[in-house]
Amino acid sequence: MGGKQLHAGGRGSGAALKLAANALFAIQVVALAEINARLEARGIEPETGIALLEETPLLSPAARAAAGLMLAEKDDAMFPIDLVAKDLRYAIAETPDASPIAGAALECFERMVAAGHGGLNLTGVRLAFA
Known about the structure:
By secondary structure, the chain is mainly alpha-helical. The protein is 61% helix and 0% strand.
């Protein structure tokens, strides 16, 4: 992943790391969608909330990019919701007792799949909080 090559460990370690990275990103996107909806319910426009959060060190570069897609309502699939759900299921299967946050994110993505939104980009998860 990325431009630098690092040895992750023995056979299967690269796949485990990929699932961990995808889970981390999925969790960030769900949290961002939830927080955005919470702020909007308090009368804070999504653009304002994101702009203020971007002034803090709290948003990762990936979360910043996801926030931009959410605000623009660009749901063209780059990482479709149904594939995010699949990766989360695999990640949780590896460590089921240590995955409560990933499990909560999976539940949200699975609701989106069940609602017929599996083909949207993962940032379309914002619709779960609309």
